[in-house]
């Protein structure tokens, strides 16, 4: 009898259909439990290109070396650092720092900032996360917003542990503290270490990421407790030794997701554009993309804006 294939509706279904029960139990399910903060059983599959499936490479990989695959097997990085690229772009722009938008009056084309000031606009290019942009305008789309996850990034500078991986980053399917990825800045480039530690290579600079359901930020005590637990676990694994500096950053909208069949995103774009607000960038467009894509989107949006404002000849 022909076996009926389960319909693929959610990301969990997609993982099972593509990787099968064994790989799912060993890696994909526990990893996605952490990475999506439990959402993978209710969200639509997305970003299939991040986990390409090639059966012949999988079989070859069990016995031999295989060429690297995936969306980030090679990447570009500015020689002088990403911060220098951002600073050089910023030099050519007019930027007002510390101006947090809290409300957008779409009728009068006016922005209101947290510090009580305001500004008028004709057309708005918005990098606000799409859900926040809608909320600030008060515009309705008749559907609940799609879900997102927040990430706590714990940056650590430490003595290198005896079992410290040499990879650039490692996806972690199981951890007591709840983190799902550890990346090693100093394995990418030695300039991510203090100058006096570069030759001996006995230090390591790392980031540790843990996902939370959107907006469920732990309080300060919860955050401190998590950091201590994560550090102890990494020390226990022998990845790091004594910690010299640790700093946690909360990223409110870190990964954006969609419910199966949701039209919220398209409806949100439409209603915002009808009010001269153009969402640009990863969180505004509610997509997964890297820094280079957002830089490109910003440059394209800027150039469209400039050519629109040029006086006609
Ligand atoms: C944990 C994590 C790891 C990542 N790792 C990588 C990586 O290794 N490589 C890679 O290429 N990409 C990585 N990314 C993705 C990368 O960070 C994003 O793609 C990129 O930063 C998106 O740029 P953006 O300009 O679209 O949005 P953002 O960088 O979020 O820019 C939005 C801007 O809007 C501003 N803003 C937001 N709200 C307000 C407000 N109310 N008022 C005023 N201003 C506001 C913000 O301050 C910010 O400057 C990672 C993302 C996360 C969350």
Concise description?
With 313 residues, the chain is of the alpha+beta class.
Write the layout of secondary structure elements.
Blueprint (H helix, E strand, L loop, with lengths): L10 H25 L19 H9 L18 H10 L9 E5 L4 E4 L4 E3 L3 E3 L3 H8 L10 E13 L8 E3 L9 E4 H4 L14 E11 L6 H17 L3 E17 L7 H11 L2 E3 L11 H19 L4
Parallel strand pairs: 4-10
Antiparallel strand pairs: 1-2, 2-3, 5-8, 5-9, 6-7, 7-8
The chain binds flavin-adenine dinucleotide.
The site of flavin-adenine dinucleotide has 16 residues, from strand 5, strand 9 and helix 8.
Task: Give an overview in words.
The protein has 313 residues and is of the alpha+beta class. It has three domains: 11-63, no CATH class; 82-143 and 258-286, 3-Layer(bba) Sandwich (FAD/NAD(P)-binding domain); 148-256, Alpha-Beta Complex (Polyamine Oxidase, Chain A, domain 2), CATH 3.90.660.10. The chain is 33% helix and 21% strand. It has eight helices and ten strands. The strands form three sheets. The protein has a five-stranded antiparallel sheet. The protein has a three-stranded antiparallel sheet with strand order 1-2-3. The protein has a two-stranded parallel ribbon with strand order 4-10. A hairpin with a 4-residue loop joins strand 2 (110-113) and strand 3 (118-120). The relative contact order is 0.15. The model has no long low-confidence stretch (mean pLDDT 93). Flavin-adenine dinucleotide binds at residues 100-101, 127-128, 151, 153, 209, 251, 254, 281-283, 289-291, 294.
**Unique ligands:** flavin-adenine dinucleotide
Helix and strand composition category: alpha+beta
Strand order of the largest sheet: 6-7-8-5-9
Mean pLDDT across the residues is 93
Q: Report low-confidence residues grouped into runs of 5 or more.
A: none
The span between the termini is 73 Å
CATH architectural name of the largest domain:
Alpha-Beta Complex
Largest sheet: 5 strands, antiparallel
Number of helices: 8
Q: Give the beta-strand count.
A: 10
Classify the beta-strand content into a percent band: 15-25%
Helical amount: 25-40%
CATH domain class of the largest domain: Alpha Beta
Shape: globular
Instruction: Indicate the radius of gyration in whole angstroms.
Output: 22 Å
């Amino acid at each position: 009898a022909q076996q009926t294939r389960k319909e693929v509706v959610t990301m969990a279904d997609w993982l099972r259909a593509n990787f099968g029960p064994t790989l799912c139990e060993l890696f994909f399910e526990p990893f996605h439990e952490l990475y999506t903060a439990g959402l993978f059983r209710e969200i639509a599959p997305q970003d299939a290109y991040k986990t390409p499936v090639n059966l012949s490479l999988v079989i070859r990989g069990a016995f031999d070396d295989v060429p690297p695959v995936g969306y980030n097997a090679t990447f570009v990085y500015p020689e002088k650092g990403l911060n220098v690229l951002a600073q050089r772009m910023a030099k050519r722009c007019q930027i007002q720092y510390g101006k947090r938008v809290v409300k957008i009056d779409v009728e009068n084309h006016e922005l209101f900032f947290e510090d009580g000031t305001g500004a008028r606009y004709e057309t708005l290019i918005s990098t606000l996360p799409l859900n926040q942009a809608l909320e600030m305008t008060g515009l309705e789309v008749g559907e609940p917003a799609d879900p997102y996850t927040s990430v706590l990034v714990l940056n650590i500078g430490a003595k290198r542990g005896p079992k410290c991986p040499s990879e650039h980053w490692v996806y972690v399917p199981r951890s007591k503290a709840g983190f799902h990825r550890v990346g090693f800045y100093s394995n990418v480039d030695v300039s991510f270490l203090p100058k006096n530690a570069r030759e001996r290579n006995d230090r390591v600079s790392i980031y540790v990421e843990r996902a939370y359901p959107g907006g469920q930020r732990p309080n300060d005590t919860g955050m401190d407790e998590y950091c201590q637990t994560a550090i102890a676990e990494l020390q226990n694994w022998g990845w790091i030794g004594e910690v010299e500096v640790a700093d946690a950053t909360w990223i409110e909208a870190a990964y954006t997701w969609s419910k199966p069949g949701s039209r919220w995103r398209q409806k949100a774009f439409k209603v915002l554009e009808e009010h001269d607000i153009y969402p640009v960038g990863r969180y505004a467009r509610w997509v997964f993309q890297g820094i280079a894509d957002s830089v490109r989107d910003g440059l394209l949006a800027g150039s469209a804006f400039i050519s629109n404002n040029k006086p006609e000849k």
